[in-house]
Amino acid sequence: MNKYPAFAGPQGRTVDEITQGRRLRRMRKADWSRRLVQENQLTVNDLIWPIFLCEGENRREDIGAMPGVQRFSVDMAVREAERAAKLGIPAIATFANIDPALRDETGSGILDPDNLINRATRAIKDAVPEIGMITDVALDPFTSHGHDGILRDGIIVNDETVEQITKGAVLQAAAGADIIAPSDMMDGRIGAIREALDHNGFQDVAIMAYATKFASAFYGPYREAIGTSGRLKGDKKTYYIDPANTDEAVREAEQDLAEGADSLMVKPGLPYLDIIRRLKDAFAMPTFAYQVSGEYTMIKAAGANGWIDEERVMMETLLAFKRAGCDGILTYFAPIVAERLKAGA
């Protein structure tokens, strides 16, 4: 019997009569039962760690807009990859802060087999062959104007950009990239990259399509990290998706899959959980989200001010991606989360 007084409403009905005996709190009453019926779970296998690269040796550079995140010289990136592998993180994704002297209007530095990204890929794969390497062939780290494509007369030219990034993708595969993840949003780039990879003997190199990259305000700290803050001329609305659109995002994903993408990415992450769910339901393909710099920095800033419990919010947001349908998440929190999970917290 219930040891507490029974409730009777104005109509004389008890709670059991109101709920028809269905008390949904029963399986929430204890830790063991909550764990038993938990629908989604975050594990280290869900984590991809984006890291930033810089020139030099034995260098670690703090990024002011991203507390706790650093740029690494290639030798330091190797050490961080070793740490990630020991924590069980399956893959890392590299992004480079290119020397301004090496940037130009067409982003030609992406065609250098020994550019910073390719050197880091070779070094990491030599030292830590078991970790997955994901590389981006967008031109923005290499352009003087900060755009993801080649700028001609104020216009980002699609086909010339596709030709350039396709050549860059082959060089990245040759350096040891396991997954090419083009983030530029040019039409036809997935199919062109797939054909070029296959033609050059890289049939086993996968493509993770930034299928739905939105023209978002959440990218600001990232642009400081790769050194493009203040360089961008205009905006990226002619090639990124309008944040108001969902059907367009589905069409983009469908096209990328038709061209040969092996997995899909939604970027940014938390503001676009509805897009993640739509893509997973529509295509049942491996689906990832990028918890971008603005999302990370908001959590860090609010945590530093004592406005939120930073660790709990970190874990809750990552679990939200899993609940929405993600198979994995690119997050700057990856090593912290991996350590927490390893400790069994």
TrEMBL record:
It holds the Pfam family ALAD. Pathway: Porphyrin-containing compound metabolism; protoporphyrin-IX biosynthesis; coproporphyrinogen-III from 5-aminolevulinate: step 1/4. The active site is at K213, K267. Mg(2+) binds at E252. GO terms for biological process: protoporphyrinogen IX biosynthetic process. InterPro entries: ALAD, ALAD_AS, Aldolase_TIM. CDD domains: ALAD_PBGS_aspartate_rich (cd04823). Homooctamer. Belongs to the ALAD family. This is Delta-aminolevulinic acid dehydratase. It comes from Phyllobacterium pellucidum. The lineage of its organism: Bacteria, Pseudomonadati, Pseudomonadota, Alphaproteobacteria, Hyphomicrobiales.
